[in-house]
Write the structure tokens for this entry.
Amino acid sequence: TIQSAESQFLGLIPSGQRRPSLPIHVMAETSCDLYPNYALCPKLNLIRKQVIASHDYKEFEKKYQPLKDQIISLLGAFPDWVTLYDIFFCRECHNYTLPNGWNTNIVNQIYNAAAEEYNLLLSDKEFLRLGMGPFLRRLLNEMKQQMTPEENETKFVLHSGHDTSIGPLIKILG
């Protein structure tokens, strides 16, 4: 997150100019509101459990059970779809070859399973409202403060996130 913020900021400075020192403030994970945070809102966990107990989620599990079994046979365990997605996406971005026993068909199915599971969770409007509402409220307040610059010393605000931030934000904004 810090490196992403530094890269974004430094990209605004024309080449050849002195690059100023910039303090970067990072929120503690327990209080971060840039993504649906279960520590900030315990009700998110309850909604997540309800989604997992739903008929649609059971159908999702049934659909991907053969792939899950195949992954267990290759790894000896099953982490979760998003973790697997992250692992193989990073490998792909860095042009690493697939481990023995893995192929692009398996990896593409993992990508699809992770996306479907994530979409199931993000289909709950209350989950989105509770999960992203605090960040959107903070963002709106920051914008309002910029409209009265004489009362505000902040010159630049950058929010740096990942797919866990962008996905819910896109979904809630429609």
